[in-house]
Amino acid sequence: MRLAILGLGNISGQYLAQLPALRNLELVAVADLRPDVAQAVADRQGVRALTPEQLVADPQVEVVLNLTTPAAHAPTTIELLRAGKHVYQEKPFALTPDEATAMLSAAREAGTRLGVAPDTVLGTGVQTARAIIDAGEIGRPVSAIAAFGCPGHEAWHPNPAFYYAAGGGPMLDMGVYYLTALVTMLGPIEAVVGMASRTRGQRVVPDNAPREGETIQVEVDTHVQARLRHANGALTTVITSFDMTASTLPHLEVHGEEGSLQVPDPNGFGGSPRLFTHPSTGWVEVADRAGFVDAGRGYGASDLVSAIEHGREPRQGADLGRHVFEVMDSILASAHSDRVVSIQSSCERPAAVPLGSMPFDS
Description:
The protein is of the alpha/beta class.
């Protein structure tokens, strides 16, 4: 399908680097609110530079990679879906439950398809971990622990302010990787309880960073902890933080009745899980068993197009995206209401990825 990219910020380079390997996607145009940026990228890629309005109206564009900032995700995606275009959207899925519902309704009414990041879970790391769990090698899953911590993105990101505005914060920005991996491995979540804090109301970009000395207003919680109950009975603890000066995180483990599993960082596509079963001499590294090999950002969009062509559900589809978003939104709501929140949505576990396949194969 003929593809356009909307939004040419920091993440777009990773998608552009992968597109040549994804033969069911043909990049034909790019668009950004900054015409000079769009033209520069278009010249390098040998495609057309469009305004966002021109992209929406362009009959040649069949599918759009929506890489805009979080606040723009829902309005731009809804407009694109209604214009008859399929959309693969960067995370987070939405800013509010109403936005999430509106996007699903727009896709259903227009007969278009919506996919959502992160597609990192399609790589060999998480997929091999899932294969180990599905094979029963740790027995019935009982619990999981997921944690990410850092001092914040202002030390490296060229435009860090949106991480501290609505749609930002460590749960929506980083928790989505861990929760998507947990749902992929253990299935949907039915209840959550959360706690959260905001260490300071302003942040100053440190020396030698891209926006050195700039002051950022903090509008979101910057340390979030949660407990989750999966529909299969497993209990998960999740920590995401922009308030850790230094840590040994990230960390993701799944524990079963007969063994334990260390899962590679779900913010990446690869890595080797480590398995401990009883009786055992210790942790054993597990070779790749499943997943797209050497994958990168864009594989989810390719899988979306393949799903359209073959009449199946995309692995990173709207139902999964909506469910994970509701879990994150409910964790934050619980943190401010001091109560357990039941999750109203659910989803099927995405189809497993056979080792060595490509997203455009079937």
